[in-house]
Amino acid sequence: MDTQGRRNTDPADQWVLDPATGTYQLRLDPETAPPPAVPAQGGRRERREQQQAVPPRQRSAATSTPATGSSRRRGRTSRGKKAGKGKKALVWTAGALGFVLVAGSLGGYLYYQHLNSNITAVDVGNAGSTNTTTHNAAVNILVIGSDSRVGLKGKYGDANSVGHADTTILFHVAKDRSNATAVSIPRDMITAIPDCPTKQKDGSTKTVPGTPKATFSPRFNESLGQEGRDPGCTMRTITQLTGIPINHFLMVNFEAVKTLSTAVGGVPVCLAKPIHDTDSKLNLPKGPARVEGEQALQFVRTRHSLQFGSDLDRIKLQQQFLGSMIRELKSSDTLTDPTKLFKLAEAATKALTVDTGIDSVKKISDLAKDLSAVDPRHITFATLPVLDNPAEGKFHKTVVLDETKAPQLMSMIKNDISLTDAVKKKPAAVDAKLQGTKAQAADVRVLVHNGGGPQGAAQATLEWLQNEKGVSRSTNGGNAPSGKQERTTLVYAPNQADQARALAAMMGLPASALKPGATDAEPKATMTLTLGEDFKSPGVPLTAPTKAPEGVQQAHASDNVCVK
């Protein structure tokens, strides 16, 4: 009660489990003022500032001093009409920052229409799928951390920066929701950027010309912001680079890291050595710590004081931060605190820019609920395999794609193969063509044709076989006489089966690629290997690998380790 006998009930303390529906509802005493009116749906972007909802801890003060009893009743009736036939319940749904929103599937109490007005959407055309019904399929979501300084008054550098793809994560969730893989894309990787149709404010479409790959440019982070490129351009670049189609994107900025880490009460991190970075201003001692707000942003931006001072080192810090955020969001301390959940929902929706396929709280909520079954133990962080740019000499500022390891990792994702032991699958039966003894490498005779692989594939394969595998009796046959073909094939005689099995094992050829003839060949005759359009490069198996390539950096969302 206040000094005038009015009841000051805090709505945040009135969440009640409805046994009939299994959801939490906000039960308001008849003498207590209802929640603030739900803003109208139309024109939500323009009226955002006028339609801010009052947080639970402030609501009692805002609603406990009506002028008269009659005005209270009239106010309640008006609000009830706006909310729609007496709807007083807030709905349990998902809300969190970018990648964490999806991976953590955090439930929050949301005012649908108000929080919808917080979300910014971008029409990326056919760069992504607008289908949000993903229950029976794997899902690929691109999470982008923009380094835009707009509105930050130059605090973190160039105030006029349009924002580039500073942090990018390809988040793949398996079809059966048993596991997920989050692949960090190095921002300083040299890669081609394709043509990009972008929607203009007047509704027209403008195509931003692509940038071909050169020795030192363009960098991947230029796929966003540069020349007016939108997140759809980054999606197109990833698909061109990896061969993986993207369903949706989620983009956040610097402020999002600060607000969400504060809303959750801080994120636990750990360092193997102290960091005193004069550039990011981060000062943290060795060992465990909890960061939030400004310090959380400093943590994810730090790189110069790390082991090698590179963006690849910083990716490890960011992965630890995200893994810790997921654990924090799934903790009982967060999920049972209505006030904290309200703050998270508010912070998350204000932080998000998404594609029009998931441009509402309900759509994001449905997507997040669908993906919520993934256990943090089975969320694997990895970094796209890259190499130092060989053209830069001693001091490296950029990297290039590892053409051997990267395709193998992407093949696992495209074939929905987990990087964890989440799924115990029975070994596939070995085809009879692959069973039996294998010839020694020196006894393998093969003529290599290029029938659809990259330019120079036949010569590159020849050199790889001779120098790496010891197949000295191999020959370059040039372009295939029959022209291009979709699949790689190996044609051999029955008495060359042991050679075919040996070559198939070296190159990772599936049984379907082996084409045995009907009659035996002469003793010194060669087999014919024709590289099809499915061939990427020597050493990259055509069959999907069952484990990540050796040396690929990995971590798990459940890991609680100290970063070096």
What would you note in describing this structure?
This protein is α/β, with parallel strands linked by helices and 564 residues long. The protein is built from 14 helices and 25 strands. Helix 3 (98-104) crosses helix 8 (311-330) and helix 3 crosses helix 11. The longest helix has 20 residues, at 311-330. It is elongated, with a radius of gyration of 28 Å. Residues 1-19, 21-99 and 101-110 have low confidence and may be disordered.
The largest β sheet comes out as: 8 strands, mixed
**Quaternary assembly:** single chain
Mean pLDDT: 78
Distance between the termini: 54 Å
Q: How much helix is in the residues?
A: 25-40%
Using the CA coordinates, give the radius of gyration: 28 Å
Helical stretch tally = 14
Class by SSE composition: alpha/beta
Strand content: 15-25%
* Global morphology: elongated
* Biggest β-sheet: strands ordered side by side in the sheet: 5-16-11-6-7-8-17-25
